[in-house]
Write a structure and sequence with these properties.
homodimer, about 20% strand, 8-stranded parallel beta sheet, alpha/beta, Urease, subunit C, domain 1, about 35% helix, 7-stranded mixed beta sheet, TIM Barrel, globular
Chain lengths: ~425, ~425
């Protein structure tokens, strides 16, 4: 099956990795792959032709840090700081969630993400095998992990949980290479050293990605140093042997200059979560410094309980705005850089070199952004328009691996009515 | 003509000024006025009944600082800091604009604003009589001024401009009290003392509102002090006798504690413009301190060339997020406070005591926000949902003075096709 997308404005990636805005060109997708980007007259034929007039065609957005099923907790505990928010508002509800709830909440999250242009998402939450299944059936792309936690005060490894972590990575394989299973260490403060080391050991054979929260709050960062002879979370994780190019670290708000050196050397990616960091008042990550040092920085929404949505357009906007003002420099984190955070850098963080860019040979993970609404005209500078003017709702088509999953308000792989009915039933039971 | 809006979730204002979320109630509008808010069974009859199931009914948003026709310059000079942006990118284009362009650009701005829930807007730009006419014909509510400028180095008052400022206030009267004409002093740096004093003198009879830019950048603030024996822009304006409850001051990023005392005493309102201040890297206004001091703070988008849209939902989101994080306190500028900035406080800043709240006897300036999309469910806390989860595109109905101006993508008073055609013609000529 091949599709031609014609008459759109294409945000392609050139040979040097920079964006090139193409007009009068088309994209031809063959199966899962982008086969051709170029002038219409030289394009190969396709089984289906779609007119993308007055649409920007861009790489699908990569949400590199999230907790999808937290749609079930949207807005819960709004206005509290991180620790109080977790302990008094979030954990008591999470204790009630069943695997079926997770499936329902994740499906609802995927609906929101597809409608706002996310094609690939990292998900860290309970009952990840359910998330894995829902991702598979929905057609979205994602990385899923069993949360690596060891609550006890001793270094004893919780065998069940450890085995579940390993089994997810070993047994959940997707022949389409669309849904990845990976390891997770919740954080320095919730994962004991023996656990971290054992994951590192087993992953030296399995080579899965490793997802971890790092230095989200000042308290977490300082308490780690107090516990570990002055080692920061990054230094501690390095000591445990877990840091390499497979590792991506969410938040990194309080990382120090030395941490950035380690991240650069070990090729660890950072994930910027501007809404969550602002809403929980966790601090401003030094994104500009990370980029200058050559650290790969991705973008994420975090769970929608601390955001309170999964809208990557909002993250791009907020992230770019705050970094300029924090640095007192309007040229910082410009729209092209921000679009890379939200696409190719996210893909790289999640261990995917075959997506995040519109380029021949890459997977066809493509979204169409409408220019129909007043706020999208005039369109002098396409990257600026996408970051500063657009809303998530301007997305009118979301394609993953060549399959259209969402188009003009309709979901192709999800029964929206049923999903809403199930979501309401869950919410009524959990909070009823 | 009377309308009943039934089955919606109503964000009403109680006697103490706090929000009250009402379910199972309805709103009845008689002519321009909210006649009834309460249980359906006690409601008076109405000529028309509209089902607002799964919609939040809230006060229309008040955009208290803008330059509407700058839709013609959307995204121009993106990434430059304020002074360079103005001098190299904006002013050369503005020199080309005709009164007809202003009408076209303002109409385009109003379309964007109505579609994202703004019912009342402050507008400061050239050819304001054109803006006045377009506001009148569109049905939106707004304040319009002739920009008070005196470019020359002497204190000589530019007679033509001064007369135009006065004539706008004297001659442009709206019998519906919907479009106000008011005075404007561009800023301390572009308006000489003699000009400011003469406006103050004449306004002691006319009692119009006065719109002024204050302490937007550190450079502006410090240069004022250097020019005026250490007086800040607020102190300088006070010395010129212009500050009173009619005055509202945009930006106020660099105001000092003493300035806030003056603003509080003189009842001067401040207007927070988070996107513009971030995008131009002008600094973070001390909104929390202003509110604590008892200064009335409103919210604005500024012109869409430095934003790059006119979406008040985005401003609420960004503004609330950055203040929490700057103050390292997740409880700061909560969603109810932010909704007040964007509604009743804005109305007060613009000299309007009859709007900005859903209360019996107030003007019927009401918007409906849809809960249909995945990101708007669950809806545990309506103010949080509006500030943190909603997008401007969730607005499905915008009513001003009891007239529905926008509903489900359709404009009732503007020919959208014609407006787009004219906008394109303007853009092609200006930049062609």
């Amino acid at each position: 099956m091949s599709i031609k997308l014609k008459n759109g404005i294409i945000l392609a990636t050139g040979e040097n990795g920079d964006f090139r805005v193409l007009e009068g060109s088309c994209i031809v997708i063959n199966g899962k792959i982008i086969e051709y980007i170029g002038p219409e007259e030289d394009a190969p034929c396709a089984d289906e032709v779609k007119d993308m007039r007055n649409r920007i065609l861009m790489p699908g957005l990569v949400n590199a840090h999230g907790h999808g099923p937290m749609t079930l907790l949207r807005g819960v505990g709004g206005g509290l700081a991180l620790q109080e928010w977790l302990e008094t508002a979030i954990f008591p509800i999470e204790d009630k969630l069943t695997p079926e709830d997770i499936a329902v909440g994740e499906r609802w999250a995927i609906m929101e993400m597809l409608a706002s242009g996310t094609t690939c998402v990292s998900d860290m939450y309970d009952f990840p095998w359910k998330t894995w299944e829902v991702m598979k059936e929905s057609g979205i792309k994602g990385n899923v992990c069993r949360v690596g936690l060891s609550f006890s005060d001793t270094e004893e490894i919780p065998t069940n949980r450890f085995n579940e972590c390993v089994s997810l990575v070993r047994d959940y394989k997707d022949e389409d290479d669309r849904v990845f299973s990976e390891f997770c260490l919740h954080s320095e403060y919730l994962t004991k050293e023996a656990f971290v080391r054992k994951i590192a050991e087993i992953n030296s054979e399995l080579h899965a990605n490793v997802n971890v929260h790092v230095s989200e709050t000042r308290r977490e960062h300082e308490e780690c140093k107090a516990r570990h002879n002055g080692l920061t979370p990054i230094q501690y994780l390095e000591k445990c042997g877990i840091l390499d190019e497979n590792t991506y670290a969410a938040h990194c708000v309080w990382v120090e200059d030395g941490d950035l050196e380690i991240m650069k050397e070990k090729k660890v990616s950072a994930v910027f979560n501007p809404s969550s960091n602002c809403k929980l008042a966790s601090g401003f990550a030094s994104i500009d410094k990370m980029l200058t040092k050559g650290v790969n920085v991705a973008l994420g929404t975090d769970g929608c309980a601390s955001n309170d949505n999964l809208n990557m357009f909002e993250e791009m906007h907020l992230g770019s705005m705050i970094i300029k003002n924090i640095k007192s420099d309007a040229t910082k984190l410009n729209s092209e850089q921000m679009l890379k955070l939200a696409t190719v850098n996210g893909a790289r963080a999640m261990g995917r070199t075959d997506t995040g860019e519109l380029k021949v040979g890459k997977r066809a993970d493509i979204i169409a952004v409408s220019l129909d609404k007043p706020h999208m005209y005039p369109a002098f500078n396409i990257p600026n328009l996408l970051v500063y003017s657009a809303q998530g709702s301007d997305v009118v088509m979301t394609m993953v691996d060549g399959n259209i999953l969402y188009e003009n308000g309709e979901y192709k792989t999800i029964d929206a009515e049923k999903a809403r009915f199930e979501m309401k039933k869950c919410i009524d039971r959990i909070y009823g």
